[in-house]
Amino acid sequence: MSSKPYIVGLTGGIGTGKSTVARAFIDLGIEVVDADIASRKIVEPGMPALKFIADRFGEKIIKEDGALNRSAMRTIIFSQPKEKAWLENLLHPLIAEWIVDQIRLARSAYVMLESPLLMETHQHKLVDTFLLVDLPEELQLKRASERDDQSLENIQSIMETQMKRGEKLHRATHIFDNTLPKSSIPARVATFHETFLKLANGVN
Length: 204
Known about the structure:
By secondary structure, this protein is an alpha/beta fold.
């Protein structure tokens, strides 16, 4: 394997089912680096980023066990664009560093980077091809609210912070239609897997 593995970017908006698709790739032996895990790791108790956040927003942003109060943080950043920008400037470089370290450790035929903000951040520069897990926005909204037990309004506000569906469809190299039955996911992932194996081996 070369020093730089072939990297497939897996993305999709909230509620599209990208984590389910990622698990199907894991079942085929592919290592998946999850940007959501990175975003949690870098603000664990004792990490410098958590102190910067507490200094900025006050101790109310820290729970009794020392962990970040993510609910309070979401409330702030979704209502205050300036604070959202500040937080992104702090965290995105740290997330990217963690992702790169994990990719270096991967030993599968290719590596998958799963990230909801793959196209919105500099993370897109890390990948060789994009796989977008896609749903119509009405179905995305319904599935996300049912899964997370949140109001439609809260889910809508999150969706509005993410890149529009049309732009993602335009930029994606490969599209995974997740309106089809869940039972069809493993077989369709296997087809994409064969495609990515060929691309990783330089076969077009």
